[in-house]
Amino acid sequence: MKALHCLAEAFTWLFRPGIRRYILLPLAVNIILFTAGSYAAWHYSTTLIDRFLPDWLAWLDWLLYPLIGLTLLILTYATFALMANLIAAPFNSLLAAVVEKAERGEPEPPVQPLWRDILASLVQEIHKALYFLTLAVPTLILALILPPLAPVLWFAYAAWCAALQYLDYPMANNGIPFREQRRRLRQQRGNSLAYGSGVSLMTTVPLLNLIAMPVGVIAATLYWVRYLRQED
């Protein structure tokens, strides 16, 4: 699929001389937060399962423990990924701008005042976070009603959120409102979910999750320039 091809190609962009300097801070943020997320996921998952799993479902321990554990792992990584994106948002927007200019063969964009980028990125991240929380409510209700499907539901949720999270950077740089972003991604639902699934899986793989953020931003930008931007 087109989006997955962009995701695979994004790894090679990490080593480009003009790109490396823009990924150092996001990389540092990822290392700190995903280290904390990994510790929290493995340390507290068993305690939470023992506390909240009803006694009448004890006979299904063999099935529910891995399912609930996987759900908690996905939720933990998704939470820390949101935190990482919130902190690194201004730098991810700059990385997306630089990658887009390089892909289109244009000079690097002029440097804007950092405070302005931080303010605009913070407002946009809050907007996205509110949407993600709103979407999480029906997902949680379905997961509680259908526990065996909980990992699938949460993974689909994480994939959609990841697609919106990372594709927002190049699209917002080009003045595309968040509502319009969602419309465009729904029109390319297969590619969007494939891209989001790839990024979500990266965030759950030790060491690979450390570079998930810059790779995700680069891949999203390549996908925007080559395919989504054609709608303009």
From TrEMBL:
It is found in: Membrane. It is a multi-pass membrane protein. Keywords: Amino-acid biosynthesis, Cell inner membrane, Cell membrane, Cysteine biosynthesis, Membrane, Sulfate transport, Transmembrane, Transmembrane helix, Transport. One of its GO terms (molecular function) is high-affinity sulfate:proton symporter activity. GO terms for biological process: cysteine biosynthetic process; sulfate assimilation. NCBIfam families: PRK04949.1. This is Putative sulfate transport protein CysZ.
